Amino acid sequence: MNKMFGIGIVGAGDILYYHASSLGALRDKARFIGLADLNKISLGKASNRYFVPYTFTDYQNLLKRDDIDVIIVATPPATHEQIVIDALSAGKHVICEKPMAHTLESADRIIEAGNKYQGKLSFCYQFRFMPEIRRIIWLRDNGFLGNMIFGNFLRITLKGSTGNWWGQWNTAGGGVVITQFIHQLDMIIQIFGNPVSVFAEMDTLQQDIESEDTFGATIKFENGAIVGCGATLNAHRVAEKFDVIGERASVHLPWAVCSNDRRHMRKLIKAMNQEKSIAEFHKQGSISSIVKKIKNEFVGDGIPAKVMRTVLPKLGIQIQIGEPPLHKSLIAAFLDAVRNNFEVPVSAEEARKSLELCTAIYTSAITGEIVSLPLAKSTPFYKGINADVYRNRKTNRTSR
Ligand SMILES: NC(=O)c1ccc[n+]([C@@H]2O[C@H](COP(=O)([O-])OP(=O)(O)OC[C@H]3O[C@@H](n4cnc5c(N)ncnc54)[C@H](O)[C@@H]3O)[C@@H](O)[C@H]2O)c1
Predict the structure, then answer these.
(1) 36, 96, 116, 199 — which has fewest CB within 10 A?
(2) Is residue 262 part of a domain?
(3) How far apart are CA 161 and CA 13, in angstroms?
(4) The pLDDT of residue 139
């Protein structure tokens, strides 16, 4: 019989729903045994909602329990390092929320601990499990896209959590880039490989936060590909879009696959139809299937911001795009990795890559210069950025 994993979660905030509902769907593999949060009110509400047997205000008590094998860290970014290291040193396996940490320095200490202790360690870049991303990787690896040439990634969104850490340099590590677009940075690296240089601009145009609410960047990759990307928290409708252009074919979100070469396109469609495992991904609840649940008048190439806030919860749909089935896929893959001693879905080294690219974007937007990657430990913002550095950045031309 397969081992039933005991799970403990640290953090009873907004993201808890995605973990708790994923664990509910994985009830044949895992049991949500304990929850810790500093805030007694959040803890009480969450334990009632999810029927959690044991709750603690000090996460150390969660770590002491022998019936807990895996700890999920769902607290603000600057707290990840301490909790991950404590959990690993207590002999637990760990899944930690993104971003890996609020600075590269903190991320490197997490990597060190990951190498020192036995427990497996992975990070929540669940968008990798999007059917569209899995299919792109499959198309690329089977030669259907040819050499990668160009990409364009856009995320127009709203401020995420209501937590007071949001948008603060010392607790979140920044704003829209590190807290939201880091998912897209992870996807971009998955698709295009290692970035070699970045040029970026950022500003706080409307939100009452310390860090950036809007950015745009151009990234160059080892193979010569160029990717343009950007995000804002000031959207009036929430949407994520991308275009990935290869030499032989292109892929797009909202989903489309195109090629100028009709013979190649016919071969490509035939191969996709034969690839059952890829077809299966589409049954997991892709963006399009979630959007279909919403009444027709709301369906377009994005979800109006007001609908995200008001209508969706009334319809019983609690989503951010791509979730929660994606958290479920990541947790299931992690438990399989622990059970069979496989590689984890997103290793610490992989999670560091998107944080490094994020730091390069910040460095360019602060200095006004093109920044080369990889970043050395002597890079100016290895230990993080503060409000003064941000305010006095070379590219600060806002007159607001
Ligand atoms: N993967 C995703 O798509 C996704 C989406 C949203 C948030 N997140 C990430 O999840 C994490 C939490 O985000 P959130 O939106 O739930 O934040 P939140 O502010 O809603 O909740 C954080 C909770 O952590 C608790 N906490 C803080 N320090 C603690 C400590 N030392 N011990 C115990 N509890 C502590 C707080 O009391 C709070 O209840 C962040 O890293 C965020 O980036 C990931």
Answers:
(1) 116
(2) yes
(3) 8
(4) 92
Evaluate whether residue 284 is within a structural domain: yes
The pocket around ligand 1, CB under 6 angstroms, is made up of: 10-15, 36-39, 42, 59, 74-77, 79, 97-98, 124, 126, 160-161, 163, 179
**Helix and strand totals (H; E) in the chain:** 17, 15
For the chain, 400 residues long, the average pLDDT of each consecutive 10-residue run is 89 93 91 96 91 95 98 98 98 98 98 98 93 89 96 90 88 97 97 98 95 98 98 92 97 91 93 66 42 34 50 50 69 94 94 98 97 96 96 76
Please identify, by atom number, the ligand 1 atom nearest to the C-alpha of residue 127. 3
Question: If we measure between CA atoms, which residue out of 357, 359, 330 comes closest to residue 133?
Answer: 330
Domain that holds residue 20: 5-126+323-346
Report the nearest atom of ligand 1 relative to the CA of 12: 39
Give dist(CA 211, CA 184) in Å, integer.
19
The predicted structure's pLDDT at residue 158 = 85
Residue 289 inside a domain? The answer is yes
Ligand 1 centroid, distance to 70 Cα (angstroms)? 17
The CATH code of the domain that includes 102 is 3.40.50.720
Other C-beta atoms within 10 Å of 59: how many?
25
How far is the centre of ligand 1, averaged over its atoms, from the C-alpha of 43 (Å)?
A: 12
Do 151 and 41 have their domain in common? no
